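INFO batch 0412 | record 1 of 1 | parsing
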Amino acid sequence: MEYHYIWFFLFFITAYFIITDNSVAEAFYYVIKLLKFQYEKTKWWFIHNPATPWAKYFMWRRSMKLAKELLEEFQSTRDKL
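INFO prediction complete | emitting tokens
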């Protein structure tokens, strides 16, 4: 038996239960919503995790920009005295 027939069979069985029973449809909806939320949470963690190279780079860049601004401000106040 071909594998795509198994997938079609599972799809049609799932679709039948979703169409005929409201509780199964609601459960399917909530499972899909939960999977989307889990994906978004994992994506957010992966992007904002300080151990990743791009997060380290952005933190370094932000720190260097702030240091440059503070140094310029310090030099300008020192020159005024």
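INFO post-check: The radius of gyration is 27 Å.
INFO record closed
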